[in-house]
Structure formats: structure tokens, C-alpha cells
TrEMBL record:
This is Disease resistance R13L4/SHOC-2-like LRR domain-containing protein. Residues 1-24 form the signal peptide. Residues 109-266 form the Disease resistance R13L4/SHOC-2-like LRR domain. It comes from Ficus carica. It is found in: Membrane; Secreted, Cell wall.
Amino acid sequence: MSDIYVLCHLLLLLLLLSFFSTTANIADAATLPSDISALKAFKSSVTPSSIPSWSCLASWDFSAADPCSLPRRTHFTCALSCSPDSFRVIQITLDPVGYSGSLSPLLSLLTHLTTLDLSDNSFYGQIPPSISSLLNLRTLSLRSNNFSGSLPSSITNLKSLETLDLSRNSLSGFLLKSMDSMTGLRRLDLSFNKLAGSLPKLPPNLLELAMKGNSLSGSVLKSSLGGLTQLEVVELSENSLTGTLESWFFLLPSLQQVDLAKNSLTRVEISSPPAGGSSDLVAVDLGFNKIDGYVPASFADYPLLSSLSLRYNRLRGKIPMEYSRKKSLRRLYLDGNFLIGQPPAGFFGGKSGVSGSLGDNCLWGCPASSQLCLPSQKPTGICKQAYGGRKGKPRS
């Protein structure tokens, strides 16, 4: 009997230890109440009819499970990540299923959040200024939604932010005057909104800048981009930028791709890279502007340049011979200008790998058999008018 008594006590002790261990694990895994409140507010601001039964948000059942508890078999199965140490919510990345609703200001309670990605859904309304409380945020992507209103000025408080993508929404109003306090920002995309104003002073460590398809005006100033030594990509097409694109711009040390097409630029100044220096410039698109003057020959001095578009501007004179000798150049669009003379023979040799167009100019002797010569050249009358009544001779 004594052995049985001891055995029973041992079994009871093991059961108690197992119970307390399980209880302790559940207590440790409990999500911070303020995080739960924020998640509840976030889900409740989403229109229920826009939540498919098979979606991530449909699995968020606060009555059945704790958001950060493991394992997640049937509840909180996706779109949510927690820190294993602090059991704080660190990531919300929604599936793109067309969720609709506003963005709850209570998201600001998720102070450990590093990623908020609601891309490719149908959220609407203003971006709440309280989002600036998410000081640990590194990625904020609200791309391809229906957000409206102005860009909150408080967003510049997000010093840890590395990626900000608010493209393809309906944001309006003027750009912020300065964003240079966002020292961690590497990628900024505000494309295809309704934003106006001039370019702000931009973050110093920016790699990629995209503000295509807005209503930006003014010139590209050195005070905005001049100190961006790491900038690789500039996409500012489909705006209303004016004035001169100065030579300092193309000498930015890390610049690789430039798209400033479909603006109202009137002049381009370009210098060769400094002696002994290098340039990573690969592609330049300045098409569909109002650029006057001669085709800048100095583009040929950029060793890696493979794509150049100056199409549909107001350029005059001859095509620089340097372009036909440049081995790296693979795409060249000079169509839609008022260029004269005979195009360099080097473009039409058997070894030439250049594609693009020299058409719709005032050239002569452009081989009809070459795709480069399409479309056909301008009528003689238009060319004479452009050159003061004398085809092929620029006005003095």
C-alpha cells in the first residue's frame, strides 16, 4: 500500500507541475492588452463584407485565441507576426484581397511595429497623424488603395523608416517642405497621387525616389537633391516640373536611372564626368518636355550609358557623332525634334546594335530600310519654319 501511495503522490505532483508549466507558458504568451485593443480596432474598422471567409483577417478571432500565442492552427494564421521575446506585435502584412475600410488611429498603440503593409486593397480616408507614434516602423506600404487627404506632416517623426510607399492612392495637397529629418529612409514612392508643390529637401540617405504622375511644379534644385550621394533612381515623370536641369544633377555619384519624361523642362546642362572619376549612369529619359538647344554630346562621355531618350522636345542641330561611336549605347530615341543633317553612318553599320528612333525630324539621307528612321521625317515646310525659312540652317 505504501508503494501505491507514493506512486499516486508522484503522479499527482507531475500533473500539478504540468498544469503550472502550461499556465505559465500561456501567461508568458499573452499579448499586451494595448496591442490587442489596437488589433481589435483595426479589424473593426474594416467593412465586414469585404473580409472573405478564407482570408487572413477572417482568422482573427479574439474570443478563441490570443494573437501571439502558439501554435496557430485555426486562428490568427496569417498577416500577423509577434516578437518571440516580448510577445508584442511587430508586423502586419495583409493579403491583397480587397479589404475596405478606414485606418484606425489606435494603430498607434502598436509601438513595437516594424512593418505595416496594407498594399493592394481598398482602404480609404485619411492616413491618421497618430501613425507617427510608431517609432520602430521600418516599412510603411499603403500602395494601391484609396487613401485621400494630405500627407501627414507628423510622418517625418518616423526616423527608423526605411521604406515609404504611398503610391497609387488619391493623396492631395502640397508636399512637405522638408523630409531630410527621415535619416533612415532609403526608398520613397509617392507616385500616382494628386500631390502638388515643389520638391522638398529630401532624406540624405535615399537610394530610390519616385514621385511620378502627380502635379509637382518648380525646378529640380540642388537644395533638394544635391547632397544625396547614395541616390540611384529618380522617377519624376508625368509632372509639371520646369526650368533647367543643371549639370550637377547628372554628376550625383551613385545615379543610375533617371526618368523625367512628360514634364515642362526647357533646358539641359550636362558636363562630362570629372577626369579620373566614374559614373554609374545607365538610363536617361527626358522625352516629351520642352527642351530647346542642341543635343548634348556630353551624354556620350558617361561610360555605362545604354539608354537615352530625348524624344519629342525642341532640339535642333545635328546628331552628335559621339553617339554612333559609343559601344554601350543600345537604345536611342531622338524622334520628334527638329534635328538636321545626315545621321551618323555608324548607326547603320552591320555591327550597330542600336534600337530606337530618329524619325519625325528634319534629317536627310536616313535609310528608309532602317527601323531607326521611322516614322518618316517632317515635311519640308515645317522644317523651314523651324529654322527661320531655311531648312538645315539654324537661326542666328
